[in-house]
């Protein structure tokens, strides 16, 4: 069976709730490998909810569908405040990235409570803003930023990562709607250890199986490179 589209590979999947410091309940899902302990954890931060982003935005949904089985990763997805998906609606209202700092903190508290290993933040679009603004406050091994628009994270917030020991990996589509590779290199130059990966032919929404596989491969290359190359069929041949 070819691994593509919405195919969901074996994993233990659990509906979860997160409790924020300002007393909201957020809905989410944790997916972990079916027969082994995870080697690392992806805490995913979805695109802009006012533009249709949610925990099921396709790259994050496919990461949860595939990577527990193919790369031994735990994948935590959740709806930020006021966001709705088939899993349900998180309490509260969208706050433009301000009060969402409590949502990120609630997810990281869940990771600590469950003793999930080696957490990484994986943000996509609006989710990269949350990772950049608030990720340094938490004990993470690194961040993977997909299509960062740099609309909300200030120059100072970006530059502050230069003092962090966390790995910073940035995937920038060649044809992004907001930030393309040349400008990204300039605007992230304040983080000397950041790895900027320009994705030829890539677009902001990473549509299509070729782009999906490239993104998931780069995530695994950062977090658990021993799992590469990712299989394209299941069971792996």
Give a quick rundown of the structure.
This protein is α/β, with parallel strands linked by helices and 237 residues long.
In terms of topology, how is this protein built?
Layout: E1 12-19, E2 25-32, E3 40-45, H1 58-71, E4 73-78, E5 84-85, E6 88-89, H2 100-113, E7 119-124, H3 126-134, E8 142-146, H4 155-159, E9 167-173, H5 181-187, E10 195-199, H6 209-223
Parallel strand pairs: 3-4, 3-7, 7-8, 8-9, 9-10
Antiparallel strand pairs: 1-2, 2-4, 5-6
Can you give a write-up of this model?
A hairpin with a 2-residue loop joins strand 5 and strand 6 (88-89). This protein has helices at residues 58-71, 100-113, 126-134, 155-159, 181-187, 209-223; strands at 12-19, 25-32, 40-45, 73-78, 84-85, 88-89, 119-124, 142-146, 167-173, 195-199. An 8-stranded mixed sheet has the order 1-2-4-3-7-8-9-10, sandwiched between helices. Strands 5-6 form a two-stranded antiparallel sheet. The protein is built from 6 helices and 10 strands, in the order E-E-E-H-E-E-E-H-E-H-E-H-E-H-E-H. Helix 2 packs across helix 3 (126-134). The chain has 237 residues and is an alpha/beta fold.
């Amino acid at each position: 069976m070819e691994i593509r589209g919405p195919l969901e590979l074996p994993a233990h999947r659990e509906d979860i709730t997160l409790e924020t410091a300002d007393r909201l309940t957020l809905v989410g899902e944790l997916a972990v490998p079916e027969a082994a302990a995870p080697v690392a954890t992806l805490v995913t931060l979805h695109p802009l909810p006012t533009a249709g982003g949610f925990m099921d935005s396709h790259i994050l949904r496919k990461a949860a569908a595939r990577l527990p089985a193919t790369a031994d990763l735990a994948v935590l997805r959740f709806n930020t405040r006021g966001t709705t998906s088939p899993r349900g609606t998180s309490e509260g209202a969208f706050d433009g990235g301000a009060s969402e700092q409590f949502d990120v903190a609630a997810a990281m508290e869940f990771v600590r409570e469950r003793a999930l290993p080696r957490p990484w933040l994986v943000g996509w679009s609006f989710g990269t803003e949350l990772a950049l603004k608030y990720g340094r406050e938490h004990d993470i091994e690194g961040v993977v930023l997909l299509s960062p628009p740099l609309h909300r994270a200030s120059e100072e917030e970006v530059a502050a990562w230069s003092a962090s020991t966390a790995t910073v990996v940035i995937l920038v589509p060649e044809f992004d709607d907001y930030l393309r590779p040349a400008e990204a290199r300039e605007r992230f130059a304040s983080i000397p250890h950041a790895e900027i990966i320009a994705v030829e032919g890539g677009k902001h929404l990473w549509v299509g199986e070729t782009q999906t596989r490239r993104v998931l491969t780069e995530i695994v290359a950062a977090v658990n490179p021993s799992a590469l190359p990712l299989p394209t069929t299941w069971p792996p041949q």
